[in-house]
Specification:
TIM Barrel, single chain, eight-stranded mixed β-sheet, four-stranded parallel β-sheet, alpha/beta, 411 residues, 17 strands, Urease, subunit C, domain 1
């Protein structure tokens, strides 16, 4: 593979305190060599001086099994996993074209996204690097238990488990199926008809068994946790990430900061659910979306003020949350007070650290050359990352996979 030098307007390396004006990103054999000030001898130059070069973006909370449909339950319960996987493959390409080179999927029926993950890793299909949990572990009647009453549905999003032995079996079953990590529902949520966001679903004992079993088997654990009681119980039980954190309070934020528990706020979720005034949403979803919106923003602002580590995640796939507009999350975080540079770190180096990936997420020497090249400067206007027309080039392992300048890449 050729030695290539990306001659930029600026480089955001994902770890520094500022961008590197006029930086030259050197890539060899699919890896980052370093950020230089000039093009060394032997390197082929690619001139992108009207662009900013940054690490490939990471979304820590997507649902590839969904495509923003209002009738998402129908898509989950009617369609077979094979069709869901094929649709997920198309959505993965949308994410790649938007500059996202790594995503953490947060639950899908059967092994649909696990199979897609393996196909992408094998080079059979284009798409971002995927981490997947398989199904979401939930209590009977809990969030993600979408199957009709009395029906055990083999295609549903949730894996129902009750009691310490039940959650232990569920963890083992998903790891046997190929799960990279475990996701469980500590509280109710907005989308299902039977639960409320503030209510804790699993007991703290059940959470402790689930998390300790996953950790024993070398897997991180993410908790869908919206109410403050469930958030605190999950933190005490040893969870790695809190997803949503809508009703976060000061005590919970302090616990997260002290224990290094990351918040994945998914501000896009409540924002997008109310797009077009929630047209077409079931009444219970619309009611809960309206009830949580202000609390969601307040919880994020509190976490930011108190120094809770924050990672970007969107919940893309749920109603009105299309894949490909994931950088909306960064714009929303900036609107709530986060600096553009910190928002980018939340979607690059900090996200990689959260997911346990040590060779992506920054443009440091030796890292995999997952790179996004965008026209303009996202530190001046974070919105440029949302504009597909501004995505000049996306590299995955040093190879061009998307962007208007893809054809200029040297062979």
């Amino acid at each position: 593979m050729a030695k290539v030098a990306l001659v930029s307007g600026s480089v955001i390396d994902g770890v520094g305190l500022e961008s590197i004006r006029g930086g030259v990103l050197l890539i060899e054999d699919g890896r980052i060599v370093r950020v230089a000030r000039r093009v060394p001898r032997g390197y082929m130059k690619v001139d992108v001086r009207d662009c900013t070069v940054l690490p490939g973006l990471i979304d820590a909370h997507v649902h590839l099994c969904l495509g923003g449909e209002v009738n998402f339950e129908t898509a989950l319960l009617r369609d077979p996993p094979e069709l869901i996987a094929l649709r997920a493959a198309a959505r993965a390409q949308e994410l790649l074209r938007a500059g996202y080179t790594t995503v953490r999927d947060m639950g899908a029926p059967a092994r649909a996204v696990i199979a897609l993950r393996d196909a992408v890793a094998a080079g059979l299909l284009p798409g971002p690097r995927i981490l997947a949990p398989g199904r979401v572990v939930t209590a009977t009647g809990g969030h993600a238990d979408f199957a009709p009453e009395g029906v055990v549905h083999r295609w549903g999003l949730g894996l129902v488990a009750d009691g310490p032995d039940g959650v232990r079996r569920a963890v083992r079953a998903e790891i046997k199926a190929g799960a990279d990590f475990i996701k469980f529902c500590a509280t109710g949520g907005v989308l299902d008809p039977q639960s409320e966001p503030g209510l804790q679903e699993f007991s703290e004992e059940e959470m402790g068994v689930l998390i300790s079993e996953a950790h024993r088997m070398g897997r991180k654990v993410a908790a869908h946790a919206q109410g403050e009681g469930g958030i605190k119980a999950a933190i005490r039980a040893g969870v790695d990430t809190i997803e949503h954190g809508i009703f976060l309070d000061e005590a919970a934020a302090e616990m997260m900061r002290e224990r290094g528990v990351y918040l994945v706020p998914t501000l896009s979720a409540s924002h997008n659910l109310l797009r077009e005034e929630g047209k077409g949403l079931p009444p219970h979803v619309l009611r809960k979306a309206r009830e949580v919106r202000e609390a969601h923003l307040e919880g994020f602002s509190l976490a930011l003020r108190m120094g809770v580590p924050i990672v970007a995640g969107t919940d893309s796939g749920i109603p009105f949350c299309p894949h490909g507009d994931n950088a909306l999350e960064l714009a929303l975080m900036v609107k709530q007070g986060m600096s553009p540079l910190e928002a980018i770190k939340a979607a690059t180096s900090r996200a990689a650290a959260t997911l346990g990936l040590d060779d992506v997420g920054s443009l440091e020497p030796g890292n995999i050359a997952d790179v996004a090249v965008v026209r303009g400067d996202p530190l001046d206007d974070i919105g440029v990352l949302r504009d597909r027309a501004r995505i000049a080039l996306v590299l995955q392992e040093g190879k061009p996979v998307a962007g208007s300048e893809r054809e200029r890449w040297p062979e």
